[in-house]
Design brief:
- By secondary structure, the protein is of the alpha/beta class.
- The strands form two sheets. An eight-stranded parallel β-barrel has the order 2-3-4-5-6-7-8-9, surrounded by six helices.
- It starts with a helix and ends with a helix.
- The protein binds ligand FNR.
- The site of ligand FNR has 27 residues, from α1, β5 and α12.
- InterPro entries: Aldolase_TIM, FMN-dep_DH, IPdP_isomerase.
- Its EC number is 5.3.3.2.
Length: 334
């Protein structure tokens, strides 16, 4: 509940670098709004919705159960996928299971993604998948959050080996994600040697877990609050190093951010903080309206760009300027 409260009060930090990307207008797109197909291809991941609700809640009893039910209902009504928050709480305490299983109860046929940290064992990963009949499993990397948490982990050895084993042995596709600090090219290269189906870059510029955890401690580790690979840069970094599906998240707030993420090569986009804000402040009806509006806006911009599906967006010419241009130059991209 602390995380939810501080995620809302610290807000989105707006450092994604998406503002440094412009599309080149195409005056002759030669298609109509009805030609647009708002679904995506994600290879082994088999996710069809280009937008999904990213991992947030679970554990914490009735309050998170209610919130998860609301999110699951919105996901069902709009036909999009949803990830639950870390299931470690429910693996440690079976009484917490209801707050996750509600998601499957509300949306029996939906695409639901389980979630655990990279400290999880193969056995825990299998239990988490079974708990909610997950269609895929996210494994999150959150070194900066743990370091900023007074009670957080201090030892991050062996994560890649555990991911390797889980991806090889579990029966559903595995996604490795960050939690708002981004995945670099170097990390993506390491992950490319495993059998994971997708990387969710979850970059800097949206929900900031260093800011959230700093709210919970007396001596602030303020240096971590501006730490991370901005989301637009992270998509480019991961795309070059990882041949499978790339998911975009971290500070995505509207359809324009999504279209830019797809143009950079992401196959789908996840929103956490901005959906949470709508869910808590305005309820499920507004969340459903917002998701439908996102899809409609996506269709409008795809029409203007002459892209009839999500994959076509990758062929759109882009103008990259400002900090993102500088960043890419220094990282050796042309
Ligand atoms: C999160 N996030 C998260 N991620 C994860 O893998 N496991 C988790 O349990 C949680 N918990 C969580 C709680 C709350 C309240 C928020 C807002 C977020 C991180 C989330 O999935 C995402 O990676 C980041 O929040 C960045 O995306 P946004 O929020 O900028 O869209």
């Amino acid at each position: 509940m602390d995380h939810i409260q501080f995620a809302l009060s610290t807000g989105q930090s707006a450092g994604t670098f998406f503002h440094d990307i412009r599309f080149v207008h195409q005056a002759l797109p030669n298609l109509g709004v009805e030609d647009i197909r708002i679904h995506t291809e994600t290879g082994d991941l088999k996710l069809k919705s280009p937008v999904f609700i990213n991992a947030m809640t679970g554990g914490g009893g009735r309050q998170t159960e209610k919130l998860n039910a609301l999110l699951a209902y919105a996901a069902k009504e709009t036909g999009i996928a949803m990830a639950v928050g870390s299931q470690m709480a429910a693996l440690r305490d079976p009484e917490e299971r209801a707050s996750y299983q509600i998601v499957r109860k509300v949306n029996p046929e939906g695409f639901i993604i389980g979630n655990l940290g990279s400290e999880a064992s193969l056995k825990q990963a299998e239990e988490a998948i079974e708990m909610i009949e997950a269609n895929a499993l996210q494994i999150h990397l959150n070194v900066i959050q743990e370091l900023t948490m007074p009670e957080g982990d201090r030892d991050f050895k062996g994560a890649l080996e555990r991911i390797e084993e889980i991806a090889e042995k579990v029966k559903v596709p595995v996604i490795v994600k960050e939690t708002g600090f981004g995945i670099s090219r170097e990390a993506a290269e390491k992950l490319a040697s495993t059998k994971i189906a997708a990387i969710d870059v979850s970059g800097y510029g949206g929900t900031n877990f260093a800011a959230i955890e700093n709210e919970r401690r007396a001596r602030k580790l303020s240096y971590f609050q501006e730490w991370g690979v901005p989301t637009a840069a992270a998509i480019i970094e991961v795309k070059k190093a990882f041949p499978q599906t790339v998911l975009a998240s971290g500070g995505i707030q509207n359809a324009l951010d999504m279209v830019k993420a797809f143009a950079l090569g992401a196959n789908a986009a996840g929103l956490a903080g901005s959906f949470l804000k709508t869910a808590i402040e305005h309820g499920e009806k507004q969340l459903i309206t917002d998701i439908e509006t996102l899809k409609e806006d996506l269709g409008m911009m795809m029409t203007a760009l002459g892209a009839k599906d999500i994959a076509d967006l990758e062929d759109c010419p882009l103008i990259i300027s400002g900090e993102l241009y500088h960043y890419l130059l220094l990282r050796g991209y042309d």
